Amino acid sequence: MIMEGGSMAVIVQKYGGTSVQDHDLVLRVAQRVADLRKRGNDVVVVVSARGETTDRLVQEARRFTDAPAQRELDMLMSAGERISMSLLAIALNSIGCPAVSFTGSQAGIVTDTRHTDARVLEVRPFRVVKELEQGNVVVIGGFQGVSTAKDVTTLGRGGSDTTAIALAAALKADLCEILTDVDAVHTADPRLVPTARPIDEIAYEDMAELARFGARILKEEAVRFAERTGIEIHIAGSDGNHTGTIVLKRPHGEEPSVVGLSLLENQILLSPRRSDHALMTQWMESAGSPLLIVHSGDRVDVVMSRDTPETSVPDDSLKLALDMTVMDVDVVAIVGSRAACGEVITGSIAELERSGTKCICSVATGRSTLLVLPDGNGVRAELLLHNLLIGSGQ
Fold first, then answer.
1. Which residues pair with 109 in a beta bridge?
2. In terms of domains, do 269 and 162 share one?
């Protein structure tokens, strides 16, 4: 995937926190970037905070209060990426590769005013372009930008991927690489499903579904941004020893019926037994974005994610008024060109029932089927369904 020879190529690379968490690793990344620059490429590098830096900063803030001001939390959390970007720029300069570091604000990443989970509105990469024209590598702190109100904002977990893709689109880059400790996108999480295998190419919409329902290689927003702008993403290991996965509009060749599975554990299922549209609307307006809405006649079941900060479970009076049950569940997503067909849905539910696992409810979309299961059944279900729908690959 490296551009060599011919006209100057613009390459945007993103390195995750594990790739820059100590001195030797930073130097290794610097050497790899310097090699790219020596081959005549313009190189922009986006970096995440080192290791668990962001989590430690948040923990420190919460020693003062359980609810730190969101604006100040953004100021604090953006510090981790600033450390990474400046150290990498220093390392590059130390080995004779001219480099300059920029914060998200300095790089022209403009966001909305929502703190801790902002959305990128536009990129104004004037300073980045100027430095590239002067022969410098540009190192940018990911996960951060500046709002239209001139405040520092952060883009939510996985936001450095969005930074890289947004910059690649603005710069009309020839290549956007997301380099991490994962060598590729797999048909399932290989830590949970030993038979999972790497995927060579995957469609934007399939990658977005997997990301939304548990695959943490890319953030859904980053995939959607790439889809809107037509930027192909190359996901690979930062060691450079694997071919990785290309995320693009449509894979070349025949697509499998099911490309992959993902899992969200310990989610919340809210099931009102009494139909009251006004009360449900009242709660939904304050509850945050639902992960899943299941319609069955007049009844509406809702699955909420525990990972969403604004998730709000109804209070006891509302539960009583709606005769609502609240239970913990797992959600397994089956994704692919025919994942929503009747044969896949009925076959999957039957396989789970044969194993003693009852599917509480299911939802089919254009290219995915979502199965809601009792809490604690997700991993076993993913193993069974991977064997049924994808196989071992042996």
1. 123
2. no
